[in-house]
């Protein structure tokens, strides 16, 4: 029989969460500790998310951004025409701006991206050459493979296609990032924009400016779990090979949308593979 799980977070635990986050601990590590202490997972997740982002989305203050100012950059209509492909819109959400897109990548492109990333992931899992020590690099960094803009023909083709979809030129785009999650792998809720009040954001923003939009492309179906979730609006997308999930978080006046909080739910069975394109306010050297 399972021990009963705690469903209430005491003031002491709230304080512990706040202090652990403030001293730079990863939210996933806090979650693991709370689970070891028999907290119900959902309760622990909510308490951590509340400490990071506040309990609810802040209500719009007088004179602040209205929903209508978060107007999608995407072309209207049911089909978006990229230079080499027609992309069908399956779902649109007004706020935060979200669109589910079909047929962004074909099956062969998905397979080729996974193969390319696999060889890079394998390389990144070897002993660190610059430390000279025997420590294997952080498992989390070895889960991602980065491809410079236009690094090869396939990457170039996808850079051009995503730019056309996202209505910005390729020079606004960061290099493609392929991510692989195994069973239990997740990406806790976060914002893709650089937190304006954090010192660490300044060097990113200095070149290219703020991030404004994201296109996550799914390289394979996932057997169970691994949904992309927007907890503030209770929206959940189930990964489907070749589809894309597009979202935006910066209005024309620079306001950022707190409803864009999102994450990758834990994979329950199988693997999850995605490739992500992030777009910046301005063209930059990449
Ligand atoms: O894994 C997911 O579904 C979310 C990924 C994500 O948030 C990102 O790449 O910025
Ligand atoms: Fe993200």
UniProtKB/TrEMBL annotation:
One of its GO terms (molecular function) is iron ion binding. Residues 172-281 form the Fe2OG dioxygenase domain. Keywords: Dioxygenase, Iron, Metal-binding, Oxidoreductase, Vitamin C. PROSITE patterns: FE2OG_OXY. Its cofactor is L-ascorbate. This is Fe2OG dioxygenase domain-containing protein.
